[in-house]
């Protein structure tokens, strides 16, 4: 019985890892759609978030099934409850990426040059890395990696501040294209929020190991 339960907990970890990989892929797609003005990438990102919706339902169902069919001890309860929290953050990452894809599609349609600041793809890569490492910290029960993810958030925050300053100056100099600059600021904010959700996942990974928030 215990071996079966452990196998199901391991499968739960695999499910979360797959969903995190989908989230990373979505982030990569919206980054490509912004940098290259490719509407197809934006549409693919939205489709990926639809797949993430299904993953979320499957993980939640799996967690509830484990709670109802088994008698988990405290450590197991932490593992399952953490999974339920993490899947919510992953879903919100998907939502943020879908929002970026929507803005990217509108930007591609307005006929203006792409002109995406270099800090946006850097923020995107950093946020994607944080998601990857946060999930790995949960799967491996690695508290040190989880804490490292939390510290990485400072880099994204600093990049966002720099991005806002650059785009605010652009608005002041180019009133005709101020709408584009505002869109880019909003995209930067979404990327910052994705990094924040990665931090949440890392904190839940620490809780899973220590039992302390």
What are the salient characteristics of this protein?
single chain; 88% helix; 213 residues; mainly alpha; 6 helices
Characterize the structure shown.
- The structure is a single chain.
- By secondary structure, the protein is mainly alpha-helical.
- It has 6 helices and no strands.
- The radius of gyration is 19 Å and the shape is elongated.
List the helices and strands and how they pair.
Blueprint: H1 2-36, H2 39-69, H3 74-109, H4 119-140, H5 143-173, H6 178-210
Helix pairs in contact: 1-2, 1-3, 1-4, 2-3, 3-6, 4-5, 4-6, 5-6
Quaternary state, please? single chain
Q: Major beta sheet, specifics?
A: none
Classify the helix fraction into a percent range. Answer: over 70%
What is the total tally of β strands?
Answer: 0
Radius of gyration: 19 Å
Category by helix and strand content: mainly alpha
Q: Could you spell the SSE succession in H and E letters?
A: HHHHHH
Distance between the first and last residues' Cα: 30 Å
What overall form do the CA principal axes indicate?
elongated
In short:
Helices cover 88% and strands 0% of the residues. With 213 residues, it is mainly α.
């Amino acid at each position: 019985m215990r071996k079966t339960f452990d196998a199901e907990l391991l499968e739960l970890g695999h499910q979360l890892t797959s969903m995190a990989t989908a989230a990373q892929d979505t982030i990569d797609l919206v980054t490509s759609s912004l940098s290259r003005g490719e509407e197809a990438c934006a549409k693919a990102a939205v489709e990926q978030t639809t797949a993430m919706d299904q993953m979320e339902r499957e993980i939640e169902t799996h967690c509830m099934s484990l709670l109802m069919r088994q008698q988990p001890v405290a450590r197991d309860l932490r593992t399952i409850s953490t999974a339920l929290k993490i899947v919510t953050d992953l879903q919100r990452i998907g939502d943020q990426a879908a929002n970026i894809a929507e803005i990217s599609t509108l930007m591609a349609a307005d006929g203006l040059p792409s002109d995406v600041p270099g800090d946006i793809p850097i923020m995107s890569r950093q946020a994607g890395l944080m998601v990857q490492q946060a999930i790995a910290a949960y799967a491996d029960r690695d508290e040190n990696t989880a804490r490292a993810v939390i510290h990485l958030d400072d880099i994204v925050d600093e990049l966002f501040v720099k991005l806002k300053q650059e785009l605010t100056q652009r608005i002041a100099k180019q009133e005709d294209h101020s709408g584009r600059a505002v869109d880019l600021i909003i995209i930067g904010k979404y990327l910052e929020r994705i990094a924040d959700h990665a931090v949440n996942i890392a904190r839940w990974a620490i809780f899973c190991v220590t039992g302390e928030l």
